[in-house]
Amino acid sequence: MASKKSLFLIIPSMIVARGLEAIFSEAGEFRVEGILSDLSRTGESRLLNVDADAVIIDPSVFDSGSRPGGRNLLSSLNPAPVVAIETVLSSEEDLKQYDAVINLFDPPSAIIRKVRSAIESRQESPRTEGEELSAREKEILICVAKGMLNKETADLYNISIYTVITHRKNITRKTGIKTVAGLTVYALLNNLIDMNSVE
Amino acid sequence: MKLSDLIDLNPDLLAILGRTGIGPGFGEATVEEACLGRGLDTDTFLEVCRVYTFRDYVPSAAALEKVRPSDIIRYLKLSHNYYVSTALTSLRDAINKMLISCDEKRKRVIFRFFEEYEKEMLKHFEYEEELVFPYVGALSSKASDIVVPPMEREFEHSSMGEKINDLKNIVLKYLPAGSDSDTALEVLRRLYDLSSDIARHTSIEDNILLPIIKRMESHGE
After folding, report:
1. Could you say which of A104, A180, B32, B139 would form a disulfide bridge with B216 (CB–CB 3.0 to 4.6 Å)?
2. CB atoms within 10 A of CB A117
3. Cβ A189–B162 below 8 Å, yes or no?
């Protein structure tokens, strides 16, 4: 089997943290890389530098004001998928931002499964896709270059407007080009559209 | 401190010299002497130097108190001159040379993108020179007939920054076949230089000029 997946825990309760650590070490496929009891400044810098396959966090480390933005803060520090463990009652909205949610009463097998699938789902998208634009992204790019609205593009391909926006974000991430005019140049240079369709 | 030592510490400051009228050949002059000789306020000169030296530098309120608005305006105007008559024209020439053996269609696509960017810059400079700068002048001379420009509370630079960044990526990553790669490297160097110069220029406007305008406005009331 490949080397053990490393996990990083941010959990204030030592009972919960040690309990999870025990479950992971028994399962054998995970290794706990480090445990933080809060997200202080030193904690943040540790998270910034740790190379973990997944982060497990108790959202109660955020106060109620910063909880809705908790996931974003974490992804600005570390690209790993984040699994929440619900120790105190949290709103569904707050939990939805995480890649998976562990319940305190989950049996070990369910916990392992959730963490495993959070890591796998993360690996699938960027690695198989590479940095080249996918066929669908090219289609969306053509629409952008033609000056179509997100809504029109969504209707044309029968997808939601949010999916269109996600594709557009990925196009910009891959090409490094943000403006519509710049994307149009890209489309023209790569023969995705014909000069005449933008004149 | 001797001006020559200051430049030695950070050669990026050479860009400022041209826009303050301090030419090379200033001998052993200290920073203060060189500024005095050109009728510049030393504190203002040093604030501009700090913006060009420290990334994300934001002057404190106390530092802003010492800044002379007319010197900032003069500096910004001379930077505009530099962008228009030197930076953009040499970039244009280099892009032309880079694309000279490309097919006509691709050449036009890239060139038109550059021209759009250039047009946007010129429009932005014009807005500042015709509305914002005179407004600051009127504010500081406490003129009674002040025409308040239809001004957004920020200078709307974001799309210009994005466009130059896009152009950089287009040349770096998607340069069409047949382009001259030596000139392309020159174009890239110019784009990187211009984009970091403009980022500092923007920072002077947003973090020095804008707070000064706000302060003068509230004092006037």
Report:
1. B139
2. 14
3. no
